[in-house]
Amino acid sequence: MNWQRLFVDYILDRGYDYYCDQKVEIINIKNDMVEATVFGSDEYDVEINYDGDGVSEMYCSCPHAAIGNNCKHMAAVLFAISDNIETFNLSSLTNDETVAKLVADASEDTVRKYLITVLEENEKLRLRFKNIVSGLDKDDLDDYKHHIDRVVKKYLGRDNFINYYEASDFYSELSEFLDTDIGEMIDNKNFEQAFELTNYIFVLIGNIDIDDSGGETSMLADECFQIWEELLENANINLKRKMFNWFLNHLDGSIIDYNEGYIEMILMDNFSELEFIKKKFEFSDLKVKNSKKINDDWSSDYNVGKWAVRHLDLMDTLKKAEHEQVAYCKKYWDYSNVRKYYIDKCMENKDYQAAIEALKESQQIDKNYRGLLKEHSVKLKEIYLQIGNQEAYINQLWQLILKDNPGDLDIYKELKNQYTDQEWKNEREKILSNLPRYANIDILYAEEKLYDRLLAFVQKSNDLYALYRYEDILVNIYPQAVLEKYQNEVEKLATSTSNRKIYQNIVAILRKMIEIPSGNEIVENLVSKWKHKYSNRKAMMDELKKL
């Protein structure tokens, strides 16, 4: 039995890493069971049970296995067993040699009769066998699709929903089909059948209602994408045309949006023959025009910008005249992606003045979008530095530190390097006194070792986040002030009836306070007061006893 099919790929990979890192210790070996310990973030007990057909049952004490999953610790132990079959005398776990001997010992007539019986009883094996021997016809492909449908139906259940606990097994079964059945079709050069069935699964997974918190949908889509790439490497021009048309026709909104990106990627990043480039050129322009008609401002802007840039890339590939490309940019100048494309082209051509003008115009167009303003300002700063315009470069740094990216530590350091130590004392105060309230001024206090101001910032903060961040710096300089901040915040937490988690947090804070000089006395007084005042809070009293 191939036990590796019991695990999803990423779990298998992690299990193999654990095995290679020698984190598996075999504890006990019996006729039908192996006990082991795996050393991960904790020590986990693993038990593998097997019979003559292979692994029959597995157990692990980790949380992932507790909710019904096959975990990396199980996989690690199985790797250890498989690589040491002779040492452990566990030949029943791998029966490839036994099967080969069994078949060799049987007569040809016996094998044929038994094979007929098996293939008549198991449709999937019949299809696999026919795929190997003679290839598949249309009816066979329909049978394969019915088999895939039955797999889906098995996991959907009555409510037409694949829950979290079923999602992993659902993924494993379809992944095994993609790897084995479609893999054999590719090996046998049945590329069209492989393409049709891969597409069937790809469309299907986008229409299933599933809790894919474990990434099952995207992992299956990734595998379909990889098959498409393999097919393209082997396809003749006729199959390429068929594939191209399928991809093109399914960029019409019929595929759910998060899977449509896979089709867009395979279509636009492949098919480099001139006939396909010309069709993509026409298609991308049509997508721009259609996207402009959508009323949804966000999606319209995003799609127009994205497809306009795709179209511009194709103009470049087709070696369209520069004035045509510039004209197309100007036609869709309102879209930031188009302007970014234009600016990057200007930079490639070393037309820095045109890039500067476009960036300044972009700052006006995008003045209500802080993220874009920051990008434009950073790009301007880099251009001024590149062309040696020192005055404009420094002015742009000031624009960034005070407005477009206020308080950014890297920009702050870059600006600091433009001044002498004496000059910087004055310039620094201009920054610290003019930063907006939302800027992370505490980071700059720490950078400049202005610890008195940093302490004041921490004391004014509404919780302990800032203190946790700077405790290592402040506790040695201002131990009593740090204690006072801790005491104020922990008393606020204690005033309200809370759950056990909050009480555990209170005790954790008290432990921190005990480590500070004079903290032990303050903690004792607090605990004594709370035991009297909140004696009816059983959970709180339980946690305080642990202190």
Largest sheet: 4 strands, antiparallel
Average of per-residue pLDDT values = 90
Shape: flat
Taking strands numbered 1, 2, ... along the chain, how are they ordered across the largest sheet?
A: 1-2-3-4
Query: Count the helices. How many?
Result: 29
Q: Which structural class is indicated by helix and strand composition?
A: mainly alpha
Structure report:
It is a single chain. This protein is mainly alpha-helical and 547 residues long. The chain contains 29 helices and four strands. A hairpin with a 2-residue loop joins strand 3 and strand 4. Helix 9 runs antiparallel to helix 10 (191-206). Mean pLDDT is 90; it is low at 91-95.
What order do the helices and strands come in, and which of them pair?
Layout: H1 9-20, E1 24-29, E2 33-39, E3 43-51, E4 54-60, H2 63-66, H3 72-82, H4 85-88, H5 96-105, H6 108-121, H7 123-133, H8 138-156, H9 164-187, H10 191-206, H11 216-234, H12 237-249, H13 257-268, H14 274-292, H15 297-317, H16 322-331, H17 336-348, H18 352-365, H19 370-387, H20 390-404, H21 409-416, H22 421-434, H23 441-447, H24 451-460, H25 465-474, H26 479-495, H27 500-514, H28 519-533, H29 538-545
Antiparallel strand pairs: 1-2, 2-3, 3-4
Helix pairs in contact: 1-3, 6-7, 8-9, 8-10, 9-10, 9-11, 10-11, 11-13, 14-15, 15-17, 17-18, 18-19, 19-20, 20-21, 24-25, 26-27, 26-28, 27-28, 27-29
Which features does this protein show?
single chain; 547 residues; mainly alpha; four-stranded antiparallel beta sheet; 4 strands; 70% helix; 5% strand; flat
